[in-house]
Structures are given as C-alpha cells and as structure tokens.
Structure prediction request, 155 residues.
Amino acid sequence: SIGMILVWDRSLIIEGIGEQNEKRLIKIVTLNGMGASINVLTTAHDKYLVCGNSDGTIRFYDFYFKLVAWFEDLYFSTVKSISFSKTEPKAATNEIPENGEEVFKCSDFLVSDESALICMLQSHIFEEINPAKKKGYTILNGIKSSISAVAVHPN
Prediction:
C-alpha cells in the first residue's frame, strides 16, 4: 500500500445495502502522507495500531487513526517485522500532561528491517530529545539476507 489502509465493515440487513454480513468498504485512511508504504500493520496492547513503514519509521495510532507516537531517524531501512514483549507497558515519560491526554505507554519491542538489522526499542525513546540517546539497542547487524520475521520470548 502507499501509506493507506482500507476500513471494512459488515453490512446490516436494515441498511438495505447488499446481503447480511457482506463486507463493504467504509473508508480509506491515509496514514503515511509522504507516500511511504506500510509493510507491517499490527496492534499493541489492544490500544494502538502500529505501522512499520518502507521509510524506516514506526508509527503508533489510536483506533481513531490519531497519531500517538512515532519512532524516526533510527537508521532502519524498510521495516519488515515488529514484535512486542509480553512485559507490562512502560510510560514514555513520568510527567503528567497538563491537557489531560494519556501518556504513551508500550512494552519493549523488536524491529527488523530488510538489511537484517534487529533492534530493541523502548517507549522512552519517543520522548528523548538528545539525538545520541534516541537509539535502540542493536541485537543483530550484518546478515547478508533480509529477516522476514522476529518473535519475542515472554521471559
């Protein structure tokens, strides 16, 4: 996809359109405005829609498609896999927002890209200002073929 997702729903008989339980397109939502394709689409903590993109970015959206958090400038090539640990989600910051919005929380997660780079990322990286500290922990780097999937062990 070129940064868009299709939202489908099941038709209800009372709507008078189609058959009961027939799928129908409700809307098309553009998540990546710059045209980067979405390679990985998953959910995290029953709270976020997570996109791993061809431009090396990872973006977290709520279920109303509002951007909640983003991880950029991490030197990933095309994201191929995202896997979340089963640990309790950690807040990205200890500060309480004044506007009443919820603080971004997620458990640690692994990201792999097409150049076989695997990094562990943590939620606090999202709030980090210093570019030198805005990096993940490299697990693996330098295999000559791409990695197609990664799974995280619960312990």
Remarks:
- The mean pLDDT is 84.
- The two ends are 34 Å apart (CA to CA).
- The longest strand covers residues 23-30.
- Helices lie at 124-127.
